[in-house]
Amino acid sequence: MTGASPRILYVGARLVGRRCLEALLAANADIVGLLYLDESKAGVTVAHCDFADLVARQRLNARAFTSLADPALQDWAAALSPDVGMVVGVSQLIGSELLAVPRQGFIGMHPTLLPEGRGRAPIPWALIKGLERTGVSLFWCDPQADTGDLLAQEALPIHYEDTAATLGTRADAIAARMLVDNLPALAAGNAPRMQQDDARATEWPRRRPEDGRIDWAQTSRQLYNFVRALAHPYPGAFTSCRGRRLFVWSCRESADLRRGAPGEVLDVLPHGVLVAVAEGTMLLTRMQWQDEAEVEAAASGLQPGDRFI
């Protein structure tokens, strides 16, 4: 990037927050202050990422936070006189006082085509729902979640082979590029503000690790989408067998015509474990018994006749 940059107050967490910040720094953006999620919050985030080494290397004016409602953060941010704020990868809403600090307001990023898919877990939900495309939206933050005026959007195709990790990585790259591309308009003070159509809005609920239990009475395509949506870095899809929790990290649809009760292990093959589902079969390829190492499914110790519940 060439030319002026607005004075940016950046608020970031998780890998996506770091990736976008690195892209802005590479474009010579003027990051006057950085608030980054404290490591003590890592247990409640997916793809947590430390910023400390980047802060030291780039000599950033930075503070760690656990709550954006801390009044001391607002005083610190106000003293920076930022033109615009950017918040990426942070699940906490920004309160009205901090929202008012940057002259132009705060820009947020959400990996859907807003107003579709407001809310939590947008990458897993897009895969669970079997969507053929999603997108990345930059929007002007307001006190609600994902409801502010749009700055920019870009569609993102979802490939059959995508997992949460691959789709998330591609969304992160688009988000980083979009933030950089909009720096000139932000510097000029004429960045777009397009109202969202609330009549088209959908909201996707929060997902918790316990929501990852597999329903073997679903179709093979539904199960394939479910497993890939919850694969690393998410907590994983799981079932129970022999009184133990068993995670399924990867699978594929099978053309095998054998039938059985949903969740019944039909065969253990060199390339995976064949399981009966509602309409056909699935081949499970990577698995992990709780508190054990992840293995190829054929090495899981399962036997024909085992049942998943």
Structure, briefly:
Helix content is 24%, strand content 28%. The chain has helices spanning 14-26, 52-58, 71-78, 96-99, 122-128, 164-181, 183-188, 220-229, and strands spanning 7-12, 30-37, 62-65, 84-88, 106-110, 118-119, 133-140, 150-157, 203-204, 237-241, 244-254, 265-269, 272-277, 280-289, 295-296. Helix 1 (14-26) runs parallel beside helix 6 (164-181).
Gap between N and C termini, in Å?
55 Å
Secondary structure: helix percent: 10-25%
Query: From the coordinates shown, what is the CATH architecture of the largest domain?
Result: 3-Layer(aba) Sandwich
Structural class: alpha/beta
Indicate the low-confidence ranges by residue numbers.
none
Q: Report the CATH topology name of the largest domain.
A: Rossmann fold
Shape: elongated
**What's the SSE pattern?**
EHEHEHEHEEHEEHHEHEEEEEE
Radius of gyration: 22 Å
Q: Order the strands across the largest sheet as they lie in space.
A: 3-2-1-4-5-7-8
CATH superfamily of the largest domain: Formyl transferase, N-terminal domain
Number of domains: 2
